[in-house]
Amino acid sequence: MLAQDSILRLDAQAIDYIIIALYFAFVLGIGYLAKRAVSNSLDFFLSGRSLPAWVTGLAFISANLGAIEIMGMSANGAEYGMPTFHYFWVGAVPAMLFLGVVMMPFYYGSKVRSVPEFMLRRFGKPAHLVNAISFALAQLLIAGVNLFLLATIVNVLLGWPIWVSTIVAAVIVLSYITLGGLSAAIYNEVLQFFVIVAALLPLTLVGLHKVGGWQGLVDKVTDSKGGAEQLSAWPGEQLSGFTNSFLSVIGIVFGLGFVLSFGYWTTNFVEVQRAMASKNMSAARRTPIIGAFPKMFIPFIVIIPGMIAAVVVPELTQFKESGGGQVDYNDALLLLMRDLLPNGMLGLAITGLLASFMAGMAANLSSFNTVMTYDLIERYGLKGRDDDFYLKTGRWVTVAGTLVAIGTAAIASGYSNLMDYLQQLFSFFNAPLFATFILGMFWKRMTPTAGWIGLVTGTGTAVLVFILSENGVINLPGQGASFVGAGVAFVVDILVSVVVSLVTTPKRDTELIGLVYSLTPKEARTEVAQEGDHGWYRRPTLLAGIALALTVALNIVFG
């Protein structure tokens, strides 16, 4: 549903507008200050590899705290309930820890400037080109999601038409990314993280008070459509689309927890770019691990409000029961804010939503401009120019990407639950890429030819599953089609890559040092302790162990 419907109009007053205006002033100010530190393309695209771990760690998680996390997960909470927790405790944290412990040494140690550039060194130009183009396309589509929801909030607040809101929202994000590059994005993401938490935590607490505390929420959800199944994370049949509990668990663990999750967190340059901006190897490894700690608790301020909205907001309750009405699941947070928050707190909540969408879109644009400039324009187009040319090119690419994202926002507007759309995109782009990456990193026999053929075949398989699902050949409601598509794409990519590798010529071992696990000396995979990095709380493997233990405990308590 488009949010210009009067039913969603928020009663914002002067105090709310003042809070929002102050936030925008800070955002643009950070962009201006960051511009002063940009003197070359490395500063613009990778912050000069100079940032501390706590900054990149918070930026790492904030970059993902966009439309996908806020509106998409609250929509999932309203529709499916607690099985949505799987996106965090199964579908995020384990992969983030794996990235920090196992994969960041290869990314950071090889000094590549992007994930596609790693593909270039491991598999050569064809695989690099496929990866760079598919990544750039994915970022424009996902930026459209963030932009559409950002425009929706502006529309709800001011009553402007969606198209006007879309353009205004795009210009604001474009301004600070074009000025300060990745540093502006990262420091704004740190600010946005705290603004988002400050906005959503009070909404959650007020919502719980409204329903009579946790037990009141349990009672109301039990009596609603979907019933008590929404109060247990496992087996999550409504979410997975499987009617068999065993198949549902397999689908969630393998499709979401392994293929989609590891594909997203370990190969998605949007996230990896934040770690690459770290000041040393230790900081780079700790970046996703530090991000894992807030990540595991975000469900309580994102999913729970969605569940509350589904049982206390009349319009959403009607939609859930009958599928009709003037709202849909994507409106859950807006409706809850409309009904529960007083002025002042409403302004803070609106600011938090604006911050989340800006963080998501800025992350998409800052990674898009890097891949377009370094991996496509410099590599295959305008070669051998001076550094200042590529710096200027990066800024113009950001402008072009924003214009295209305005167009892709229209695609996002057609989905009643945006997580369905996002998971579909991830099954197309991330699942086969992860298969190629993981096989190539741990099997030295995998050949360059297998790299690009496996990638193309895996992507084509995921698209085929989507087409079959859309035409009713495969009947999997919820996000089951995405899980199946991702799993099948992963398996097909692996099988095709193995077969092709056995009949084509691999690279020499000397060419694979630093790119393949077994051929890379241990000292090259672990950092030499830097000054100030000796404390136990700075040891990546120990931090990862603590995070994993907490995640297992949360799965047990809420399972």
TrEMBL record:
It comes from the Bacteria. Keywords: Membrane, Transmembrane, Transmembrane helix. Pfam families: SSF. The keyword DNA damage does not apply. InterPro entries: Na/Glc_symporter_sf (IPR038377), Na/solute_symporter (IPR001734). GO terms for molecular function: D-glucose:sodium symporter activity. It is a multi-pass membrane protein. The chain crosses the membrane at residues 14-34, 54-75, 87-108, 129-154, 160-179, 191-209, 246-267, 288-313, 345-372, 393-415, 421-443, 450-469, 481-503, 541-558. Its main location: membrane. GO terms for cellular component: plasma membrane. It is found in: Membrane. The keyword Membrane applies. NCBIfam families: sss. Belongs to the sodium:solute symporter (SSF) (TC 2.A.21) family. This is SSS family solute:Na+ symporter. The lineage of its organism: Bacteria, Bacillati, Actinomycetota, Actinomycetes, Propionibacteriales.
